[in-house]
Amino acid sequence: MRRNGPLALIFHTIFVIVMVAPILVVCLVAFTPEGFLSLPTNGFSLRWFRTIAQYPEFIHAFWVSLGLGALSSFVALLFAVPAALAIARYRFRGRDALAALFLSPLMIPHVVLGIAFLRFFTSAGLGGSLAALIIAHVIIVFPFALRLTLAAATGMDRTVEMAAVSLGAGGWTLFRRVTLPLILPGVISGWALAFIQSFDDLTMTVFLAAPGTETLPVRMFLYIQDNIDPLVTSVSACVIAVTMTALILLDRFYGLDRVLAGKGDAGR
Amino acid sequence: MSMAAEERSARAPWALTAPALMLFVGVLLIPLAMTVMLSFHDWGQYKGIEPVFILKNWREIATDPYYAEMFWRTFRIAIMTTLLTALLGAPEAYILNRMSGRWKSFFLLVILGPLLISVVARTLGWALLFGGNNGLVNKLLMSLGVIRFPIPFMFTETGMIVALAHVMMPFMVLSVWAALQRLDPQIENAAMSLGAGPVTIIRRIIVPQIMPGVLSGAIIVFSLSASAFATPAIIGGRRLKVAATLAYDEFLNTLNWPLGAAVATLLLVALVLIVVGSNALIERRYAEVFR
């Protein structure tokens, strides 16, 4: 294969700088010792990271996001794993339609989902509740949980299952001792990707969150509406650090390109 | 297979998908249907929402030029964002694909990683870089001699397009990169050995082969940009509204839910039509590539 020429490498360098610049700037500004937005020119300071401690609403929002992400991704898997096994193994009428339905939250604008859920949960008497948030997040992270479980279940060697059956394993034992361990890497990666999606969602959650159930992105968004100061950059830097750690772990564990490669071709 | 086993395997997929299906009908299809219904309801400042069937909201959207301008702005921004990501993302994916193993996976991580980093944090980064008339971007462009006067980025469509292109870029790179995976690198060598120059190779060999990737990336970027909320809200502020931020304001500030629901329904229908339409077009045009 031919090598990249100097022009290509210059293009690549500028491209990477532009991609990284806004993230880098947020992280740099977070370390400013000044009381206003500036790149840390007079030395680094952790002042604004310490200030986060004085804003309990950010801390509370962080725990809401964490719990919501963990729980909704887990619940999504409870529904997605059986569905993925069915879609991976059986050829049945309505299979394609079901798969398209289950992946549809990727296609529907999140602002539309937010409005639909707000309308639905308000008339169901669940407006602003944590339960409503969890159910809504289960729907939006479902495609990610399904996609990765599906990939694992499709690539699974089924002779091991047949061997277990021939040795007398029943349905539940078979699933618990053979099938689940074999698809576990896909299931865990599906959980992780679903968690990140839930943790990051702003557009849908902003419609459902009430004071007390605000997630971190919602809290940050509402804060930015009124003022942009170093505090919100230090909170962002923490979010970026958490996500980067999750990404690197996901990459080591499963391969980021495999996780992301299925993303663009929903329903096909 | 015995009769009983055959019957069981016919029922099995439905038993396995039933919980998820019930969840999706109950908590996705019904709420969406309720939203469409809501767009036909009446609303007044003091009386609130009235469950009647009228076309008031739809008539307002169809006749008031404010909404035409807002929808046109939404799609104009989405088109420009799509063009920008295609023009920059496709070459980058190609360059990326020609790198050696370790560098390739490193830069893939650097470029795709932002996909999963909070959109609020990434847009905040652009707000910092734009920062009024003397932001870093303007200072850099002026010192490089690219521009002579600062470009206003905050609260403008230009700023929204730049920030949105950054947010959407990973989708385009990923899509083109996936198309490149299916490409046989020997074809390029064959063309070279037959005497084709670099320009001919790019124009006749590479571009036609990555076009399906660019187009499917374009559909994703377009539909996500047209329905984007966070970036337009932060960069555009309250002055420059797009469909998603308008629906948000109608729902949470004005509290005119029926009108907001009509805006959202129109956005959804328009996007579905555009996406399904262009998908069909692309698949017909590139039927031989997809096979």
Overview of the molecule:
The complex is a heterodimer of chains A (268) and B (291). Chain A is an all-alpha fold and 268 residues long. In chain A, 73% of the residues lie in helices and 0% in strands. Chain A contains twelve helices and no strands. In chain A, helix 1 (6-29) crosses helix 11 (230-254) and helix 6 (130-154) packs across helix 8. Chain A is globular. Chain B is 77% helix and 2% strand. Chain B has 13 helices and two strands. In chain B, a hairpin with a 3-residue loop joins strand 1 and strand 2. The chains are: A mainly alpha (268), B mainly alpha (291). At the A-B interface, helix 1, helix 3, helix 4, helix 5 and helix 6 of A face helix 1, helix 3, helix 4, helix 5 and helix 7 of B.
Could you outline the blueprint of secondary structure elements for this entry?
The complex is a heterodimer of chains A (268) and B (291).
Chain A: H1 6-29, H2 47-52, H3 56-89, H4 95-103, H5 110-123, H6 130-154, H7 159-166, H8 171-200, H9 205-208, H10 216-226, H11 230-254, H12 256-261
Chain B: H1 3-38, E1 42-44, E2 48-50, H2 56-63, H3 65-97, H4 101-112, H5 119-130, H6 136-143, H7 157-181, H8 185-193, H9 198-226, H10 230-236, H11 243-254, H12 257-285, H13 287-290
Antiparallel strand pairs in B: 1-2
